[in-house]
Design a protein that fits this description.
Blueprint lengths: L3 H16 L3 E9 L2 E9 L2 E9 L14 H15 L8 E8 L6 E7 L4
Parallel strand pairs: 3-4
Antiparallel strand pairs: 1-2, 2-3, 4-5
Length: 115
């Protein structure tokens, strides 16, 4: 997300996750494969977070918009990020879906390695 609305959504998701005990590692991490909205630490686990904002839910909520194609891009970007680390921590992919003023929908382990 690069728009002001997207930045606001990411800040909201980050603030929510911090209240859940996660610690920010990186925001908007970019590489040739794409961008990871948020990278956080949840205890020993490194969490790659995709933030989705939807003003309407006609076609499913924000979580429904994380397609297999988007998942593959996120996985490739995460692999690139992990290649910069000396040791590989346990990892997971979460989605934080935001819709209007409703509480964030936090989907832990939203998807696994899809190959």
């Amino acid at each position: 997300m690069s728009s002001l609305l997207g930045q606001t959504a990411e800040a909201r998701a980050e603030a929510f996750l911090k209240t859940q005990g996660l610690r920010l590692v990186a925001r908007n991490w970019r590489c040739r494969f794409g961008e990871i909205d948020l990278i956080l630490q949840d205890g020993p686990t490194l969490v790659f977070v995709e933030v989705r904002l939807r003003s309407r839910s006609d076609f499913g909520g924000g979580a429904a918009s994380v397609t297999p194609v988007k998942q593959k891009k996120l996985l490739a970007a995460a692999r690139q990020y992990l290649s910069t680390l000396k040791t590989l921590p346990p990892c997971r992919f979460d989605v934080v879906a935001l819709s209007g003023n409703a509480p964030p929908e936090w989907i832990k382990n939203a998807f696994d390695d899809v190959g």
